[in-house]
Design brief:
Length: 362
């Protein structure tokens, strides 16, 4: 880009907010010009606000560290500093909805990591490699909001990223039923082992709201844009049921999946569909897009978090152990990075896509 877009990060002091800040340092499309958080952090420099809780592997960018932290609820003050914002605020769902809507109505586009607007009819929930065509609903949303540039777009839940890409690659075989158990990293709860020592050597078989999201969000991703009704219509199949467990891993969500198909594909056909998968839009010019979205691993003990979670800098998805099942047609293991592909990285790639499609501008 000739001139970078000015971007703000709402909820910048939290774990996902810090991941945004880390990934956006020296980004070719975007420049962080505003960091915002709760009133408790407002008024400090960003470096001061995260001094004792910077959780990223990379060092804090010097220029971003010097930015003053603004109050995320002060829409007018933030709007003066940015062309659009990433939202990673930690608030009640109703409060997130109101805040993001306030920015959109102020003509500031919002790319959200939150779940608050994922089921708003005219809000696209995008994985760029799978459903970039859903971005067109933004035109309808702008009409509803009576704005020229503002809108809300969201990325889906982190837990679905480890198996939904496989479902997208296998659409030609008409998947009908999916059982998925996800083993989710503690960073998905915004925690480290230092902050959550009781997770070491432990498994918690409950993550609030996670199973409902994991069963329904893939259907919106695989759905279609109904321009007449100006909404995204979810797919009616496959029927998905899930269990979601928190496990003692820092980064990486693993899914153990069982799947039935209307068609009866061979293993060779399924593997070929994975490794040759191409989405509807060429994303090779997007800085965050992986060169190869899905890798298939042939080893019996892969994918593994330690070996594979950083595939394509955390933006790729790893599939392995595809084999016949006694009750279902096939079963497999999926792995994705929950704060790269599943959170900030996925939202940044979504923003890059929206620049490409002309929805994000100066």
């Amino acid at each position: 880009m000739k001139q970078k877009l000015r971007v703000g990060v709402l909820g910048a002091t939290g774990m996902v907010g810090q991941r945004y800040v880390s990934l956006l340092a020296n980004h070719p499309f975007f420049e962080v010009t505003c960091v915002a958080a709760s009133p408790k952090s407002a008024g400090q420099s960003y470096r001061e606000a995260v001094a004792n809780r910077w959780r990223m592997e990379a060092r804090l960018d010097e220029a971003i560290g010097q930015l003053p932290v603004l109050d995320a609820s002060d829409v007018e003050a933030v709007a003066k500093e940015v062309d659009f914002v990433f939202s990673a605020v930690n608030m009640a769902k109703e409060d997130v909805q109101k805040l993001e809507l306030a920015y959109a109505k102020h003509d500031i586009p919002v790319i959200s990591n939150n779940s608050a607007h994922r089921w708003t009819n005219d809000v696209p929930m995008i994985i760029p490699e799978i459903n970039p065509q859903h971005a067109k609903i933004i035109d309808c949303q702008r009409k509803h909001l009576h704005v020229k540039k503002g809108f809300i777009a969201v990325k889906p839940n982190c837990s679905i990223q480890s198996y939904t890409p496989a479902l997208a690659a296998w659409q030609q075989f008409e998947p009908t039923q999916v059982v998925a158990t996800t083993y989710q990293a503690i960073s998905g709860a915004g925690k480290t082992f230092k902050e959550w020592p009781e997770m070491q050597g432990n498994i918690i078989p409950y993550i609030a709201g996670e199973e409902e999201k994991s069963e329904t969000e893939p259907l919106k991703i695989l759905g279609y844009l109904d321009e007449k009704e100006q909404s995204i219509k979810p797919a009616t199949s496959p029927l998905i049921t899930t269990q979601c467990l928190r496990v003692p891993v820092l980064y990486g969500h693993t899914a153990a999946c069982f799947i039935n198909f209307k068609q009866k594909p061979t293993k060779e056909a399924l593997v070929e569909a994975l490794i040759n998968y191409q989405g509807p839009v060429d994303l090779t010019d997007l800085p965050s897009a992986p060169k190869h979205f899905i890798q298939y691993l042939t080893e019996d003990d892969r994918p593994q978090v330690r070996l594979d979670v950083a595939y394509e800098k955390g933006m790729g998805v790893s599939i392995g152990r595809l084999r016949p099942d006694k009750l279902f047609d096939w079963k497999f293991i999926g792995l994705s990075h929950n704060t790269a592909r599943g959170a900030a990285g996925g939202a940044i790639e979504c923003a890059e896509l929206l620049v490409k499609l002309g929805y994000l501008t100066k």
